[in-house]
């Protein structure tokens, strides 16, 4: 079984309504691919493209949620909406769980009501920023590198109360530390290690250790330029290198995968789409015990679900 903490298929389905979630060639994540790879839980991110006007962003988030239900949940009886561990436990052998997540709080502006609305609609995890600044915090590419705003602290506190994940992927370093100080259920859904690829989106060793001390999770991502500086040569071996480094820091029970499929144009060799998870599984089995492989692929993220 596989628990994938991040993909951007909803964004692609929103941008091109002609795409088929069943087996669309221009999607990395499709129903057919998930079934073939034995993915048990797939997180679907609500990511609002940068060119969407500020006043339209909440509406676009609602449109993506509508697409999630109409094009994925309602159309495929074996796809089941997941809001809790109980829902995962209820999945039949051939059923696939689908979770909603938010990538960046741009959609909520400065409104806690909008955040609460998205949570009531079933969003299980909230990424505070994408790469730039919003009303919550600065992102990883924002030059001033500021931390959480007062509104951002309110957002994190509400996520704590609602027992939802606070996703620190994409945050500036200052915002990461601010969020980690108060977040009760922190994860980095799709981030790699700065040690092996010094990209602003990757986490330094002290950040990874701190995330583990807060009983958080890090999802190793397959984006080539987060895997290696020689991104054109990125391969499964690079994924294993980042995984092993997190384990060496004491993170064997705090690491999983957040592919970022459909959120990248170029792919790592052997990880061209969700079907290719079988290649990763084969490589993991060469280096780790059956229990460790099961933890990395599924159990760790499952165990860290807040509810």
Automatic annotation (TrEMBL):
Q: Which PROSITE patterns match?
A: RENAL_DIPEPTIDASE_2
Q: Name one GO molecular function term.
A: metallodipeptidase activity
Taxonomic source organism: Parageobacillus thermantarcticus
In Swiss-Prot or TrEMBL terms, this protein is called Membrane dipeptidase
What does the record list as GO biological process?
proteolysis
């Amino acid at each position: 079984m596989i628990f994938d903490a991040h993909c951007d298929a909803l964004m692609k389905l929103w941008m091109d309504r002609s795409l088929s979630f069943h087996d669309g060639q221009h999607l990395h994540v499709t129903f057919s691919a998930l079934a073939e790879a034995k993915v048990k839980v797939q997180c679907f991110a609500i990511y609002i493209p940068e060119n969407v006007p500020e006043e339209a962003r909440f509406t676009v988030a609602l449109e993506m949620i509508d697409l999630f239900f109409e094009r994925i949940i309602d159309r495929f009886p074996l796809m089941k909406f997941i809001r809790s561990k109980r829902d995962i436990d209820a999945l039949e052998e051939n059923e696939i769980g689908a979770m909603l997540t938010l990538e960046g709080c741009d959609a909520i502006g400065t409104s806690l009501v909008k955040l609460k609305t998205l949570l009531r609609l079933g969003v299980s995890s909230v990424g505070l920023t994408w790469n730039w600044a919003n009303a919550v915090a600065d992102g990883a590419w924002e030059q001033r590198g500021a931390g959480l705003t007062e509104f951002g602290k309110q957002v994190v506190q509400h996520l704590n109360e609602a027992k939802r994940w606070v996703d620190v992927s994409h945050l500036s370093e200052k915002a990461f530390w601010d969020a980690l100080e108060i977040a009760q259920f922190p994860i980095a859904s799709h981030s790699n290690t700065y040690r092996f690829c010094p990209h602003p989106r990757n986490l330094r060793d002290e950040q990874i250790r701190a995330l583990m001390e807060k009983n958080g999770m890090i999802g190793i991502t397959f984006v080539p330029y987060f895997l290696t500086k020689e991104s054109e040569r990125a391969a499964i071996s690079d994924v294993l290198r980042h995984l092993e480094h997190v384990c060496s820091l004491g993170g064997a029970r705090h690491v999983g995968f957040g592919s970022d499929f459909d959120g990248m144009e170029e792919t790592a060799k052997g990880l061209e789409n969700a079907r290719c998870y079988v290649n990763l599984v084969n490589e993991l089995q060469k280096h780790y015990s059956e229990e460790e492989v099961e933890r990395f692929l599924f159990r760790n993220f499952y165990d860290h679900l807040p509810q």
